[in-house]
Amino acid sequence: MLSTVATIVLILMSLSVLVCTIRAIIGPSMSDRLVALDTIGINLIGFTAILLLIQDTLAYAEVVLVLAILAFIGSVAIAKFIEGGVVLDRDRH
């Protein structure tokens, strides 16, 4: 029963990633693209966590943490770029 539900969830999450990819490509604004990329990151974290449950292992626990950190840092960097145009502020005297 769990494997059937997990398979259905993986299929739905794959469709969600596909829709978010389309939105990231043709999004009307940069903010829409940022939200789509952030949603793709969240879906990848969930996808990996579901695989972790299906395979009944902890081998992917570190992968989930790394994906979460990279998704957060990427979202912050892109949001800062959209807001000010510069990701890293360096004082050049």
Automatic annotation (TrEMBL):
GO cellular component, one term: plasma membrane
Alphabetical UniProt keywords: Antiport, Cell membrane, Ion transport, Membrane, Transmembrane, Transmembrane helix, Transport
InterPro entries xrefs: MrpF/PhaF-like (IPR007208)
UniProt cross-references to Pfam families, sorted A to Z: MrpF_PhaF
Membrane topology: Multi-pass membrane protein
MF terms (GO), sorted A to Z: sodium:proton antiporter activity
Keyword Membrane: yes
Subcellular location: Cell membrane
Keyword Ion transport in annotation: yes
Record-annotated membrane-spanning stretches: 6-26, 35-54, 60-82
The family this protein is said to belong to: Belongs to the CPA3 antiporters (TC 2.A.63) subunit F family.
The protein's name: Na(+)/H(+) antiporter subunit F
